[in-house]
Design goal:
With 346 residues, the chain is an all-alpha fold. Helix content is 73%, strand content 0%. It has helices spanning 3-9, 16-24, 29-59, 65-86, 99-120, 125-132, 135-145, 153-170, 179-201, 207-229, 243-246, 257-280, 283-286, 293-305, 311-343. Mean pLDDT is 80; it is low at 1-25.
Length: 346
Amino acid sequence: MSQSGKTAAARPGMTGATRRKDRKVTPAAAPARTALTGILLAVGGTICFSVNDMAVTLLSGGYALHQVILIRTLIAGTVLACVIAVSGTGLAQLRTRRWRAHLFRVCLIMVSNVTFFLGLAALPLAEGIALSFVAPLVITVMSVVFLGEQVGPRRWAAVAVGLVGVLVMLRPGAGVIQPAALLILFAACLYAGGHMMTRQMRDTESAMALNYFVLVGFLVICCLVGLVAGNGRFEADAPPILAFLFRPWVWPATADLPVFLALGLSIGVGGLMIAQAYRLCEAALVAPFEYVAMPMAIFWGLLVFGQWPDRTAWFGIALIVGAGLYALWRETVRQRTKDAGAGSGL
């Protein structure tokens, strides 16, 4: 008889339902269930973020970017406030002594958002999202420069392939390189910096605090920009690519209110889902599932904007996404080897 059979025989009073409950909480099943939960949260959060990208692009024709982000922040902040109100820890989860780190992280994410959406408004949705996926490759480079990590030839090869994909997407032989594409690449670098900050802060800061202080930063900065440029006085002198940023504020049209609502809910719910996914699971397990954003971008581009990537775009997308996924896989292998060595005392 197996050990589990002996245990069940020694407890004859157990009902079938009790034994089923015992099987649900076995130590072997718990990690697998946690991993599945983290993966589902990552996929759900990424889908929410894809709605955010689509909605901002859809609204980019008639509203100032800082107005869109402000309304999004107010709705998302309301979602977070409701979650804080019903949670057991309440405002205690927002306590921090690392306000300088939060401030720096907020600045990185804020500028990253602004440059990303400025670029996304001028590019096909799928191509813009594909360019943003150079972030894992940038993180690889930053880990060497700022954290002193060792990167092997295979991961450097992934970085090189990703850069080739970027060149394909930029299409330098077709004329002048689009400034919008450069803005998205710049945004990806800032996003990678924000991710490095999250790595350094996750041991002391809650997922709620990491999301909440970003929203507070967005609220403050958008209000300040609105006071300075909300009347549209800088729009006439701004380059065409910055027109989205300096348009005058207008009262939202009734037909656009559902889009604003979807925008705010997607970033509020999606942010919590992604943060919780990274709290439950290792980053190397969760991160590859964020690439669900690529087929979602193609889906929204076709459904909402009637856009379909051409052959050149598909080739660049394949190189960038493939290189990013390979870099994440190599990071998983490296971390497991490191953990195994630490566990054996090597």
